[in-house]
Amino acid sequence: MIWYYLLVFLTSYSILNVQARQTCSWEVCNRWSNEEGVINVHLVPHTHDDLGWIKTVDQYYYGAKPSLVPVGVQYIFNTVIDELQKHPDRRFSFAETGFLWRWYNDHSDFHKHSLQKLVKTGQIEMIGGGWVQNDEACSHYVDIIDQMTLGLKKLEQVFGECGKPRTAWQIDPFGHSKEQANLLALMGFTSVFFARIHYLEKEARLKNKSLEFVWNTSEDLKTQILAGAFFQDGYGPPEGFCFDTLCRDDPIMDNPDLEGYNLDEKISSFVSHVKKQASFLRSSHVMMLMGSDFQYTNANAWYTNLDKLIQHVNGNAIHGVHVFYSTPSCYVKGLTESSTTRLPTKEDDFFPYASSNVSYWTGYFTSRPTFKRMVRETSSLLQLCKQLDALADLGPEDDADVETIARAAALVQHHDAVTGTAKEKVTGDYKKRLAKATKEGEIVINDYLKKVYPKADAEPPRHYICPLINETRCHAIENESTFALTVFNSNSRQMSGVVSIPYYSKQAMVKNAAGDRVPVQLMKVFRVDSLNSIYRAPYELLVPIQVGPVGYATYIVDNSTSKRAITPLFASKIVKEELVTIENEDISLLFDENGLVSSLTEKATNRTYPFRQQFFYYKGVMNGAQPSGAYVFRPDGDAIKVDKAQLEVIKGDLVQEVRQTFNPWIAQVIRLKKGTKPIEFDWIIGPIPKEEKNPVTKEVVTQYITDIKNANVFFTDSNGRQMMKRQKNFNPSFKYVDSEPVSGNYYPVTNRAFIKDEKRQLTVLTDRAEGATVLDGGLEIMLHRRCFADDHWGVEEALDEPGYGSGLVARGTHYVLLGETKTAAAIHRPLAVDIFHSPQLTFAPVKNATDYAQRYRMKFSALRRSLPPFVHLMTLERWHRRSLLLRLEHIFQNQEDFDNSKPMSVVLDDLFTQFKVVNITEVTLAGNRNASRKFFPERPNRTSSNFTVVLEPSEIRTFVIGVQWN
């Protein structure tokens, strides 16, 4: 194993060009002892405040619904501030900016100043600093970056240099990803601490004293971060030393004349805890957490007892223990200054997380699938709205609308939100916030169109987003004979493809921006019992689109009978044992007599390969100590096969598809689109049946099977970026025990998974976070779950989503690629970006189609050219009044693709059509610290400059750019 010196590692801050203020917490640490043999105990008072879980975020803040949890975050801030002002040695660490920002804006200037003073004199340390403490399995990397950027920007605005945390704090997420740690390192964090790791890895790390280690977070970028797993099981104080209102431990009673005197017992117990913890560490410094969930509502109780603890332990040198108030950054500083301890390294991640041999927390990878999709859609809308606001210089009101969307998107990255592990009513509150964000996005889109759309002075009609389009419903066009379909592309590459919209007429004619008729496909909707609704459109209209990079294109849809129009296609029902084939230019799919796909033929090579897809479901354990629930996946037996499908087939010029109905609660459309590579598996699951008596948990999966020789190895993405190698029944960090053979081999999939051998690769891309495992020659991916028992991890209710009353129906899409291994990345890397930047559709009524095209700019692109397939314009957003934040990403890893895994240059000089770049400063990933590389033009008013950015594989570079709008 490679070993690194801690001192060298922690003092290597070459990327940063920042000098910390001398009054920040890490510069005014309470002193520790340098005496040999003395254990230095860093008492770290902290609170962990979930932005929603058992109660909504508002209820937690105000302290409402005390019968559920008798806490209020506003009181935590109030009482902590009061107590810290009583003695300068006292310390506290806050992590969640979402709550802090709310408190800050709710209070007077006097109270704001009190908080600022405590931060700027080092008594309060900001740790983590994101809007929330995000999940690490289900959150997309763009969402992680966005929520961290939002929180850190607020901290910097209020606290300056002291609002730039050095220590990341991920203490409650259920497992930890390599990409999360990598992003933190790129943001300038030097350390990260967490609590939840696999119980077997915890045992191994205790045994070899490796709770603290150097995490190598990217092979390509050579990034590292100091990481620490807590000694305690959790992130609270040792047993007997919880002094919060929520706790039941006795206080320190140090007056021997009073009944109940327990000082000697308390001190002895504490010293014993310290020495036990120190025996598993490699240095003389011990971090002792003093606080937990929503603690310090009564901070006086905490500090009164901690003051006594410090006084009496330090008052007797025989203990060999020195105790003092501290913060996580001061603890890291203590390690740096007091030791040259060599730490081990880690290359893998911390998935899956298991708290016991039967408690694998792999169910939440899939829990609440429709909410997970809603989260992803809001994120995509946020990227678009940030771009529109920045490109058109919309102004303060739209800036505020964009921030509303950003706050909602950030909130749901919380580790009990996107995970699907909050109570049903709390999840409903999250959904309301996302729905409001969609309405705010609609406002931003319309304000942008008011500025860009008209060719002259004309007020464009209102454009509407249809949030239920996946249910084939769009109220905005239900009674419109002619309407404008505008397709927005937030991707930095040309968008080509086919979009599907709900349609309410038997005829259709569509024209593009040039006035030319577009060949469309009109077809009867798939009549699935679970999706039937009086509001559902009877048809769907498929429209081929071409949209420029970071742009839009408008199509006029006319269903009036006076115009020459197409008529709908109806599905052909297939009789039993009839073989069916569908095809496009690249491949054909053959279906067997049971209605299941059986083989794939490549037209270019005329080779046919075995390829099967089928649904199964697991029954979940219902009783005992560990049922299957919102967090934990624990199947009761093998997967049960879902048998034969009834088929319908539609073959059109744009799309050929097979519609499968397996039973009243499982259906699917397998689709091949003209001009596109992936096979689309559009699955519809639910309502999962609930028996009247003794209902049984059911967890639905899909399996894709090939003849690829993958040797029980597969690869999953880490938050949508770097790929992680996984091997069945094996973990590189500890000796694997096969106690839960199915759930113990499940891993999070944020957007893709694949298997491969030397010749061919099967890649499945998802439209939301899901869980997956490996099969012999295939992949199994969980789609939906309905649990009728609580899994006893705190949410205290079963994962039984009501949907519209009888249970939740979930609909989603897998994009499946089967082809050569050597060219697979060249397809799936850009495709993953395309899926994230899915086209945003808006609809507007049109009175006169000819007049409409003359009055409005029907297509537009904010980029003069498409960026190459290896470059992702990740972020373009307002930063300050005359500057924007720009992120560019190289989406390929080293040695992943012969043509694309190499350094590439992007010229910014004349890239944008709506503004000119006048200066550029490189910053760290979250935008709150300057990086070492800077670019300046020779003079501000020059027409061109050498603004060329070089991107290495896997690199993300972030810039604050000064601009002049045209």
Key phrases:
966 residues, alpha+beta, 7-stranded beta/alpha barrel, Immunoglobulin-like, 10-stranded antiparallel beta sheet, 9-stranded antiparallel beta sheet, 29% strand, metal-binding, EC 3.2.1.-
Describe the model.
- β7 (212-218) and β8 form a beta hairpin.
- The two termini are 57 Å apart.
- The strands form 11 sheets. Strands 21-27-28-29-30-39-36-35-32-33 form a 10-stranded antiparallel sheet.
- It is an alpha+beta fold and 966 residues long.
- Among the domains are: 4-30 and 39-341, 7-stranded beta/alpha barrel; 871-965, Immunoglobulin-like.
The CATH homologous superfamily of the domain at 4-30 and 39-341 is named Glycoside hydrolase 38, N terminal domain
Approximate shape = globular
Q: What's the oligomerization state?
A: single chain
Computed Rg? 29 Å
β-strand number: 48
Strand portion: 25-35%
Would you give the CATH topology of the domain at 4-30 and 39-341? 7-stranded beta/alpha barrel
Helices and strands: which structural class? alpha+beta
CATH class of the domain at 4-30 and 39-341: Alpha Beta
Summarize model confidence as the mean pLDDT: 94
Tell me the number of helical segments per DSSP (H or I, 4 or more residues long): 16
Stretches where pLDDT is under 50 for at least 5 consecutive residues are: 1-21, 933-945
Strand order of the largest sheet: 21-27-28-29-30-39-36-35-32-33
- Main pleated-sheet profile: 10 strands, antiparallel
Q: What distance lies between the first and last C-alpha atoms, to the nearest angstrom?
A: 57 Å
Percent of residues in helices: 10-25%
CATH architecture of the domain at 4-30 and 39-341: Alpha-Beta Barrel
